[in-house]
Inverse folding.
């Protein structure tokens, strides 16, 4: 069923409200989902409250919220996710994220914890740790998961071997920890190029081929920009090994309002997975433990068909595709409106 999304903004172009309604039998239903945002004097998002419309009482009912805190440098320190208990009308904890920084405001660590309602305590889930060089560029990024049996952090992936040129990231390598052999094994490698204005123009992804012990091309992004350095197109291509050629996968066009400042959209480096693909009645979106809060589904003409908020700020969610006609569609995954990843899928 198609839906309609309405956004409201304050005088400094901060989004303060969000309403979504479904199209049913030739007319728009009353809004069934809403989100309100509050900010501090430094434009930091303090709270996001998610609500649903109660058609019986004709009122908005809270069901989840996210609360952030910041330091004096406007770095986010904590993010608390909660859900409303309809019986007690109290907020139940679900997810807690703690951030740390160095003296240069570089993010050093990010620890995610889940709420243990039985023990009324937070339990470790995952940890991400970064290191930097004297130019404040990433030199490594380690992801670990908590082993509740051993009460210790266990390695999962690491991003290493960053190479920089003229202040820009030129290449990086992703490795996966093998618990059997107890060594890191290569997974993927990215190469980047830039124009004279330091805008990223290409990103080449390669994957490690174990049988041949070699890197092979996998995916390529090509970017174009307007004279004001706003990104206007992104062309994604995949490498076809049988023909040794690049095949177009999807193209994205970005549009900007002339009077409103625009944050640069950065591609999420984590892998996005869609399944089943081809899909029939639904499709599951997974971001490899990267949490996100919005999903947009479009057709091949870039027409927006679905806008869904991931209110629990999880790393996966399910989208109903039963009403879609057979064809090719695209899913865009957004994180706080700043980062975005794309993936194509087929509806049978």
């Amino acid at each position: 069923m198609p839906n309609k999304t309405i956004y409201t903004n304050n005088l400094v172009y901060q989004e303060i409200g969000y309403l979504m309604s479904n199209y049913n039998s030739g007319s728009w239903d009353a809004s069934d989902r809403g989100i309100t945002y509050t900010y501090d004097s430094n434009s930091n998002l303090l709270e996001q409250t998610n609500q649903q419309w109660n058609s019986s009482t004709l009122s908005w009912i809270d069901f989840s919220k996210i609360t952030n805190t910041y330091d004096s440098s406007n770095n986010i320190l904590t993010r608390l996710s909660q859900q409303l208990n309809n019986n007690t009308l109290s907020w139940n904890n679900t997810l807690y994220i703690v951030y740390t920084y160095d003296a240069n405001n570089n993010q050093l660590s990010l620890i995610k914890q889940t709420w243990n309602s039985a023990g009324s305590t937070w339990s470790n889930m995952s940890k991400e740790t970064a290191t930097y060089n004297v130019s404040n560029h990433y030199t490594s990024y380690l992801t670990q998961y908590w082993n509740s049996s051993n009460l210790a952090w266990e390695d999962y992936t690491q991003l290493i071997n960053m190479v920089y040129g003229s202040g820009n990231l030129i290449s990086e390598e992703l490795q996966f920890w093998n618990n059997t052999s107890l060594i890191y094994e290569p997974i993927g490698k990215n190469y980047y190029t830039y124009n004279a204005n330091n805008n990223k123009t290409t990103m080449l992804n390669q994957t490690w081929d174990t049988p041949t012990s070699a890197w092979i091309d996998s995916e390529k992004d090509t970017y174009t920009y307007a004279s004001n350095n706003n990104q206007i197109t992104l062309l994604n291509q995949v490498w076809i090994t049988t023909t040794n050629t690049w095949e177009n996968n999807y193209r994205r066009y970005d549009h900007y309002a002339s009077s409103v400042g625009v944050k640069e959209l950065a591609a999420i480096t984590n892998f996005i997975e869609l399944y089943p693909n081809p899909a029939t009645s639904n499709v599951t979106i997974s971001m490899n433990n990267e949490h996100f809060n919005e999903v947009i589904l479009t057709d091949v003409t870039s027409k927006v068909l679905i806008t869904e908020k991931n209110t629990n700020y999880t790393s996966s969610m399910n989208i109903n595709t039963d009403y879609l006609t057979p064809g090719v569609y695209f899913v865009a995954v957004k994180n706080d409106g700043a980062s975005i990843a794309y993936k194509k899928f087929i509806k049978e």
